[in-house]
Write a structure and sequence with these properties.
18 helices; Rossmann fold; nucleotide-binding; Sigma_54_int_dom_ATP-bd_1; transcription regulation; 16 strands; binds adenosine-5'-triphosphate; alpha/beta; 4 domains; 451 residues; ATP binding; Helicase, Ruva Protein, domain 3
Length: 451
């Protein structure tokens, strides 16, 4: 089946008191690859809807003595995204209109054919797909900026990217550690995009930016009246990214109460909204990021040890920019091209001295600092070259580089030679070959000079 005609796999709830209809509908929908749960009464329907996240529901309006119409607002208040198709025995326009006024998406009249069911389900699937895409695009809009460059010449970074690509296709939790500004959220997004969940939404919850009660409500949702100001139900980010990925940024700062709830969610995939005691389930992949030493925090008791072990399945540390100097210029050139474009400037370039100073700077704020420095230079600079005057004052002009025969130590010449060579070669092996040494010796020299 080509991509256009391929039906989105949906979680579908069937509510009908007639066993025959439940069986036929289940058979027809399962044959299309959907996940189906069928129940015979409103009580079981509510119970199921609270335990799982459904994309769509077929609801019979006559459920024995009970009225399926009353189920519509209840299902919608739990899952505002659910597409409800009501089943009416005799196609009556009045009841269909009433159901749609209550929020149903469509109706189907008994007796119906499998083709009618397939058609309506595909249409609902398309709408769910578009809605999911909108959520993802909204998240992406906040990220709009220079193209993220995941191309790196640094062997350590190359290994990290390889590991992330392999891990992406599993559902394993990934813990990204590293100094602030190293690009942890960029890598988390890349993992989501490489994963089988890429078509589902990704959400980000920044743990330190909100107080503990709000963080709990943001993640797990709340019931109306759960706290002052909770004027309506909120399904929470976990429910909103069902089937997708949730990035928990700065997890080291998460309050202990929220840590306990997260641990339970990781273990059982179950959670409760704030101010409610209904157990809910969700299928969400967790990526956690932190610039704190989580192991140390777990050891000194400021982070739950059991949660740390749960998170520490695939743990990677993104190296600071100063430990991957070969990436500085390619990243800077990428930012320069982007900011020249968005600021309507002619294509700009760096002077040789600027390039050298960029490579020599220690970048305590990592890629974020580099990006900000280049943006500032593009806005403030004149002419078609970015000079030292356009860079922030803490970036020291590179001193005149030593030349062969100058009164300098051999080490100074060696360090400079290795740095330059590494910036212009595409692999460690190539650099080692040109230098006429093996990779281990090159590694030792890099360690000595902090390259
Ligand atoms: N490989 C990259 N390519 C392009 N931009 C990058 C790259 N890595 C990081 N950046 C940019 O650097 C900035 C910081 O990145 P990001 O927010 O991912 O870092 P972080 O490690 O999550 O930081 P923090 O710990 O402060 O949340 C962002 O503006 C991001 O766009």
């Amino acid at each position: 089946m080509d991509k256009e005609n391929k039906a989105t796999v949906l979680n579908i709830l069937i509510v009908d008191d007639e066993a025959n209809i439940r069986k036929t509908l289940s058979y027809c929908l399962a044959a299309e690859g959907h996940m189906v749960i069928a129940v015979s009464n409103p009580e079981d329907a509510v119970e199921e809807a609270r335990r799982r996240s459904f994309d769509m529901a077929f609801v019979d309006l006559k459920l024995g003595d009970e009225d399926g119409m009353e189920l519509i607002p209840v299902l919608l208040s739990d899952s505002s995204w659910i597409k409800i198709v009501v089943i009416t025995a005799h196609a009556s326009i009045e009841t269909a209109v009433e159901a749609i006024k209550l929020g149903a998406a469509d109706y189907i009249a008994k007796p119906f054919t499998p083709d009618q069911v397939k058609l309506i389900t595909r249409r609902m699937g398309k709408i769910r797909e578009l809605e999911t895409e909108i959520v993802s695009l909204r998240e992406n809009i906040q990220q709009i900026g220079p193209e993220n460059s995941l191309v790196t010449k640094n062997p350590g970074m190359q290994r990290i990217i390889e590991t992330l690509k392999k891990a992406a296709v599993s559902d394993a939790i990934i813990l990204l550690q590293g100094e602030s500004g190293t690009g942890k959220s960029i890598f988390a997004r890349a993992v989501h995009n490489w994963s089988l969940r890429a078509a589902k939404p990704m959400a980000v919850v920044a743990c330190p930016s909100v107080p503990s009660e709000l963080l709990e409500s943001e993640m797990f949702g709340h019931a109306r009246g759960a706290f002052t100001g909770a004027v309506r139900d909120n399904p929470g980010r976990i429910a909103a990214c069902e089937g997708g990925t949730l990035l928990l940024d700065e997890i080291g700062d998460m309050a202990p109460g929220v840590q306990a709830k997260l641990l339970r969610f990781i273990q059982d995939r179950e959670y409760e909204r704030l101010g409610e005691s209904i157990l809910r389930r969700a299928d969400v992949r967790i990526i956690a990021a932190t610039n704190a030493d989580l192991e140390k925090k777990a050891a000194d008791g400021s982070f739950r040890e059991d949660l740390f072990y749960r998170l520490n399945v695939i743990s990677l540390t993104i190296p600071p920019l100063r430990q991957r100097p070969e990436d500085i210029l390619p990243l800077a050139e990428g930012f320069l091209a982007y900011f020249s474009r968005v600021n309507h400037r002619m294509p700009l370039s760096f002077t040789d001295q600027t390039k050298e100073s960029l490579v020599n700077h220690s970048w305590p704020g990592n890629v974020r600092e580099l990006r900000n420095a280049v943006e500032r230079a593009v806005i403030l600079g004149n002419g078609d070259k970015i000079s030292m005057n356009d860079l922030p004052g803490n970036i020291i002009p590179a001193v005149k580089t030593p030349a062969i025969g100058d009164k300098v130590s051999l080490a100074a010449i060696e360090e400079l030679h290795i740095r330059r060579l590494m910036a212009s070669t595409s692999s460690l092996q190539e650099a080692a070959d040109i230098l006429g040494i093996d990779q281990t010796t090159l590694w030792r020299r890099r360690k000595t000079y902090g390259i």
